[in-house]
Amino acid sequence: MDFTKKSYFKNVVFTLVLVSTMAFSQNNKQKELETRRQELRNQIEQLNKLRADNKTKEKSQLSLVEGVNHKINVLSNLIKVTNQQANLLTREINDNQKKITNLRKELADLKDDYAAMVVKAYKSKNKQSRIMFLLSSNNFKQAYKRLQYIQQYADHQKKQGESIKTKTLELQATNKKLLNQQKEKNTLIAENRQVQKTLQEDRKEHEALMQSIQKNLSTYTAQIRQKQREVNRIDAEIDKIIKAAIAKSNTKAGKSSSSKSFALTPEEKVLASNFTSNRGKLPWPVDNGYVSLGYGTQRHPIDKSLTIKSNGVRITTQKGAQVRAIFNGEVSEILKMRNVNPIVMIRHGNYLSIYKNLSKVYVKVGDKVSTKQAIGEVFTNPGNGETILSFIISKDSNTQNPASWLYKM
C-alpha cells in the first residue's frame, strides 16, 4: 500500500470514527434532555395536584405568589429544555436528510455498475463459453489465472448484489427514522405551544397578585420580616444545640471543648465518610414535593428591597406526607420550642440532617435510623392547607446547600 492509499485509508477511518462519536454524543444528549423534560413535567403535575388539593383553602397572597413564582420557573425551564430537544432533533433530521441523499446516490451508482456487469456477462456468454475461454489458454498457468478471474468476477457480482440489498435496507431504515424524528419534533412543538399558553396565563395571575399586594405592601413587608425573625430565632437555637453537642463530643474525647468540629469515634468516621461518598445521591426527606424556597440569601419575590436568609430549603408536599431519614444515623435531638412544631435532628458522624415543622414524631433521642426510614409526619397548616417541610444539612455547625447533596434537587 503506497503513501497516498495509506493516507486515504486513515482519513476514511477517522471520518467514520468522528461521525460515530458525534451520533453517540447526540443520542446521549437527547436522552438526558428527555429525562429532564419528564422530570419537569412531573413537577408541574405535582404543582397542579397540590393546588387542586388545596383549592378550598384560603391561601395568603404571599403563599400564592410563591406558588405561582415556582410554577413559572418550572414552566420556563420546561420550554427551554423542549426547545433544546427540538433543535437537536432538527440537526439530526438534517443529518439524516443528507445521509438519505448520499445513500440514494450510492445505491444508484451500485445499480448502474451491477447492470453494466450483467450486460457485459451476457455479451461475454454469447461470444464465448467459459469452457472455451479456459481451453483457449496458451498454458496451464494462463488457464488457472482465467479461472481465478471468472471466480473473482462472479464473487464481485454477488458482492455488488449484497451491497445493493444492504444499502436499500439502510435507506429504508434511515427514511423510517427520519419520519419518526419529524413526528417527534412536531409533538414537541405542539406541547411547547401549550406550555407557553399556560405560562402566559400564570404570568397574568402573577401580575394580578402583585398588583393586589402593592396596594398594601407595607403590611406584607411587616409579615415577611416577622416570619424571617421567627426563622432566625429557630435557626439560632439549632446552632446553639449543635455547638453544645460539638463541645460535649470533644470533652468526652479529652480534647478542647472550644473545637468547632465533632470529635469522632472510629465508627462515626466511617459513617461520615459514607455520607460524604453519597453526595448528590441522597434521597429526598419526603417522597413527593418541590422546593418552594432554595438555600442561601436571596431577594424576596414580593418586596425586592428585602433579603431573606435560608439555612436550608423549604419543600412543599402533600397532606399527611411522611418524613424520611436521608441516611443512616442516630437521632441526636428532638427540639420542642414554644409555638414551634417539633424539629428532629439526626447525626451522621460530623454531618447532621435537620427536619423542621413536623406534626408527628415516630422516633426518640438515641434511636438508630436507616436511610428512608419514616421518622415523622409533616405539619399541615389548617388555615391554608399548606404542608411544608423545612430541611437543613449541616457539617459540624456549618450549613450546606441541600441541592448539592440530595438526588436531582
Automatic annotation (TrEMBL):
Key words of the record: Coiled coil, Signal
MF GO annotations: metalloendopeptidase activity
Record InterPro entries: Cell_wall_metabolism_enzyme (IPR050570), Dup_hybrid_motif (IPR011055), M23ase_b-sheet_dom (IPR016047)
Domain called M23ase beta-sheet core: residue spans: 310-402
UniProt keyword Plastid, yes or no: no
Record Gene3D superfamilies: 6.10.250.3150, Glucose Permease (Domain IIA)
Coiled-coil boundaries: 23-120, 171-244
Signal peptide: 1-25
Transmembrane segments: none
Keyword Signal: yes
Name used for this protein in its record: Peptidase M23
